[in-house]
Amino acid sequence: MREVRQGALLLLTAVAGAAVAACDLALGPDVSLAGLLLVGPLVAATRLEGACTAVVSFTALILGVAVAGREHTLARTDQLLSLTVLAAAAAYATWASDRQAALDSQLAGVAAAAQRAILRPTSFRVSGASVCARYRSAAPRAVIGGDLYAFADTPSGLRVLIGDVRGKGLEAVRLSAAAIGHFRDCAYTRSNLAEVAEEVDRRLIDDLGPEDFITAVIAEISPGRLRLVNCGHHPPLHLPAAGPPVLLTPSEPTTPIGLLPLPRVQEVELAPGDRLLLYTDGLAEARDPDGTMLDLAGLLPACSLPDLNDAIEAVLSTMCRHTHGAQDDDVALVLVELEPSMPRQHHVRTPPAITRTSAEPPGGPRKPAGRPSPSAAVSD
User: Fold this and answer.
1) Could you report the per-residue pLDDT of 236-271, keeping only the tens digit for each?
2) CA–CA gap between residue 336 and residue 242 (Å, rounded)
3) CA end-to-end span of the chain
4) Which CATH number does the domain 119-377 belong to among 3.60.40.10, 3.40.50.970, 3.30.1490.100, 3.30.1390.10?
5) Which residues contact 130 (CB under 8 A, 6 or more apart)?
6) Of 96, 97, 129, 280, which has the fewest CB atoms closer than 10 Å, so is most exposed?
7) Which of 177, 189, 166 lies closest to 144 in space, CA to CA?
8) What is the pLDDT of residue 353?
9) CA–CA separation, 355 and 273 (whole Å)
10) Which residue, 291, 280, 320, is CA-closest to 172?
């Protein structure tokens, strides 16, 4: 997208320069429009990289000299002065563009280091489980945004947070960092999972604005058992070692963090080799150019790859193919596997339709408050 914008601006400056040169020739030698050729280099210096700015500047100077040569006015003092100013402006525009590009690169490096200190891709083993997490920002030159994940290895088991802050930009990054910090503290000091969510909500009151909230899922993984609290977030996808994938939709949806949630703990049995995929809007609501949402059941082959790192990268690749490379929202993914006694089989057959947990009420799950359900993207 950035290359397209730069190409369009290059074309625009070329057309504008040619138009100025044509008008100058049409008006004759008594009128000089060489000063108007300054516009191209100056605009390029604010929008284009150094090499592109140099091309625009050199083209403007060549046009000025060509017009003066055509009209036989190169020896005139006013024309020489105009061309000298044009050359100086072209040189300055190229230098300024190079300097700004170098400064942007330095700032981008500092920002990336600061953001990775808050949230970074990770892969580890703990408490009988393997974990892999990835983050892909939708914003150019950004490492993270409003999505978040965090982990805490507690006596109750591995606790995982995944969430999505309402809004974007630096404010969303600030709220993400605050939520991660509070979760890491509460995960060790609260024994009940619902209390963890409620305490994080209480601590975030001073950080959240009147319209801010964070949808979140907090999972607790221990041998043979998964506990969940869902605060208005997309339900995790349970991928049994043997059996169809299951959306773990809560029977009693609650409000997001920041809106006084009262979550209930949901319990699910886990078997060795089972996997759990936690995700945010960027995956659940990924659409192709026709507006069709990604079918979560289609992620089964990707999620079944033996290596978790390969599996989570395959999920991102599947999403990218579905959207044809477009990404409108940040994506955070956490893939967890209970360490199996035997290597996991890679599914190559057509994935089955996603089923739902038996805890769901008759007639299907209700939507979590304030968030669209990913059930629209999967077959019943």
Assistant:
1) 999 998 889 999 999 888 999 999 999 999 999 999
2) 16
3) 37
4) 3.60.40.10
5) 123, 124, 308, 336, 337, 339
6) 96
7) 177
8) 54
9) 19
10) 280
